[in-house]
Recover the amino acids of this structure.
């Protein structure tokens, strides 16, 4: 049994499947590598990619990390209540309760920065809070960081704010409004950070996009700075730290997936994937000599419904999903020569395609140290927190 699977499976032998497990040495080696790649720029931890408070807290205790990028306002308020004082909400919110909870507490308002991308966002927040007379809310403008070549849009569909002129117009509008304090800009370059280097064409697109963003970010920061004192200029992701971190216009980077290193982060030129998070399922059937059926496993990652969103069996080696069934709600049949040596009750180790969603499947996760010692800690779900 190749390392680290012998250690991980021996340490978790008493746990019923399905369960999730973190290889602690790999996790912290990944954290150190993220810091190395960031080149001295601080890294904000993307909580959506982790969803385990213990891991978030311990990561933030390490040199090179500071602050959390959250994914919902309810989560942001909860993290502030746990003592975190630097939380950037990465997405606009329409949560009435979350906004009322935010403005009701001065400590939360000081800790949390809310994302906006239009005056409509501001109008909606005002409407949920009963008008513009609410206490000031720290806000950050999400700037679309996609590469546009004529009619071609390369990147994710996020903010309507793309140019320096558009950012300046929104910044000026925020400056004139009561109840909002513009403190930041965010640039997420998904077409660089989230795209493996799978071909020469991809590498060329990423290189061109990085050069375009370097120029455009500087113009946006300068334009918005005429209307706001910027504390935060956030950019990048796990796959683009060494590129984006060289931009003098930014104040910080963001990473989260790189801690767990899921399947979609295999295949980058700048770093070698070091898997740290897995889940384990048991064989419950042998419908044929070369087929082993696992209980559960239909843990499909979000995004386009391609094969690369399915879990990947990694131990024993040589197992693949059956194309006509894939990862199933209740059972997941795998085929291959390795299946011949599997018996009912044997365990199979799999990797999740993305990072954050895995922990929405499990109430707890086993953290296994180098010496095999193990601690079971709750995920967000295990803490009975549903943040959408």
């Amino acid at each position: 049994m190749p390392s680290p699977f012998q250690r991980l499976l021996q340490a978790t032998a008493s746990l019923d499947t399905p369960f999730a497990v973190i290889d602690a040495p790999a996790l912290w080696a990944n954290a150190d590598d993220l810091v190395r790649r960031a080149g001295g720029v601080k890294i904000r931890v993307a909580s959506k990619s982790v969803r385990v408070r213990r891991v978030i807290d311990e990561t933030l205790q390490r040199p090179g990390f500071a602050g959390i990028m959250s994914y919902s306002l309810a989560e942001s308020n909860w993290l502030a209540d746990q003592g975190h004082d630097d939380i950037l909400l990465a997405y606009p919110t329409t949560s009435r309760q979350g906004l009322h909870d935010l403005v009701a507490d001065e400590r939360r308002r000081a800790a949390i920065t809310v994302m906006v991308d239009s005056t409509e966002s501001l109008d909606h927040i005002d409407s949920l809070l009963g008008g513009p007379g609410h206490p000031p809310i720290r806000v950050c403008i999400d700037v679309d960081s996609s590469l546009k070549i004529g009619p071609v849009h390369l990147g994710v569909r996020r903010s309507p704010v793309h140019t320096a002129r558009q950012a300046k117009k929104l910044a000026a509008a925020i400056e004139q409004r009561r109840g909002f304090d513009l403190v930041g800009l965010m640039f997420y370059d998904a077409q660089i950070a989230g795209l493996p280097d799978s071909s020469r064409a991809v590498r060329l697109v990423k290189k061109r996009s990085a050069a375009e963003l370097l120029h455009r970010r500087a113009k946006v920061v300068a334009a918005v700075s005429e209307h706001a004192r910027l504390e935060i200029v956030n950019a990048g992701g796990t796959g683009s730290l060494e590129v984006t971190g060289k931009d003098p216009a930014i104040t910080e980077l963001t990473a989260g997936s790189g801690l767990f290193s899921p399947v979609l982060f295999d295949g980058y030129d700048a770093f070698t994937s070091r898997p740290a998070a897995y889940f384990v399922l048991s064989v419950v059937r042998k419908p044929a000599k070369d087929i082993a059926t696992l209980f559960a496993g239909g843990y499909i990652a979000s995004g386009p419904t391609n094969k690369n969103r399915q879990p990947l069996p990694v131990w024993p080696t040589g197992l693949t999903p059956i194309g006509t069934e894939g990862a199933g709600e209740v059972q997941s049949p795998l085929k291959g020569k390795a299946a011949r040596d599997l018996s009912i009750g044997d365990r199979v180790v799999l990797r999740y395609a993305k990072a954050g969603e895995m922990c929405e499947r499990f109430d707890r996760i086993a953290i296994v140290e180098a010496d095999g010692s193990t601690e079971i800690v709750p995920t967000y779900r295990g803490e009975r927190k549903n943040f959408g």
The mean pLDDT is 94. DSSP finds twelve helices and 19 strands in the chain. The first strand starts at residue 19 and ends at 23. The two ends are 39 Å apart (CA to CA).
